[in-house]
């Protein structure tokens, strides 16, 4: 009798213990996975920072939202920054912001260079100023960009040319001016911060999309040509770089496949996310990065493998837009 009671008690204790374990198993598993992810990201961040330490890094349009964030992460990583922008006062404000939050014993004071990327005739002279800062360039980050939105027939040819200067001719002119220094040293990295619209064309952004397509084509070719010189070429293409306080506009857009498909593109990514990805791209020498949520990412694949479906969706969007304008 005692033996039976003992066995029963042991069975109950075992069942209770198993029940408690089964309840705690999932939280413990999630906690363990979270810890592993945190450690991995921390190690990755430290390795990314060490990869740019003492490197000469040039950032164009450093005074933009993304430019400031790139400046922050590379400065914190110990890079020797050369910051380029169109406005001296904004460059000085960025300089003050950077040196005020970092340890001067572990970082370098940034160099400041005035650069208007749309002024093609002056870029080669500015490139000489850049090279005179430290005698070389290890990493060139082409960040400057210009956007325009409107129907093709409403955008003047002069504006089309200005967009091409800012998004294509400017970056490639600066790249060509810096390239001989990298080739002679057989080292360096060139980063183009582009856009998903370098892969798919979104209506009413023809000039912008064309300039981004052109830039992707140029840097893809450059990547292959520079391999023999051990020079890396990377492109980072976010959907849309949103502002710090930007929120999606309200509206019943779910009813339309067009709006569902392309409105998602405008949600974009935060400048901090893009800057950290640029740092990771540099440290790991990634060739191409597409920063997009599933909807615009799917749009890229649909455009590639099912172009007729993609064009049908685009056409339906145009028809809906025209219908809405007529109703209003």
UniProtKB/TrEMBL annotation:
Keywords carried by this UniProt record: NAD, NADP, Oxidoreductase, Signal
Record bears the keyword NAD: yes
Organism domain of life: Eukaryota
GO terms for cellular component: cytoplasm; membrane
CDD domains, alphabetized: 11beta-HSD1_like_SDR_c
Family, per entry: Belongs to the short-chain dehydrogenases/reductases (SDR) family.
Pfam families per UniProt: adh_short
Gene that encodes the chain: DHRS7C
PROSITE patterns: ADH_SHORT (PS00061)
GO BP: any one term: intracellular calcium ion homeostasis
Gene3D superfamilies per the UniProt record, alphabetical: NAD(P)-binding Rossmann-like Domain
Coiled-coil intervals: none
UniProt GO MF annotations: oxidoreductase activity, acting on the CH-OH group of donors, NAD or NADP as acceptor
Family annotation (PANTHER family): DEHYDROGENASE_REDUCTASE SDR FAMILY MEMBER 7C, PTHR44668
Name of the featured protein: Dehydrogenase/reductase SDR family member 7C
InterPro entries the record matches: NAD(P)-bd_dom_sf, Sc_DH/Rdtase_CS, SDR_fam, SDR_family_member_7C
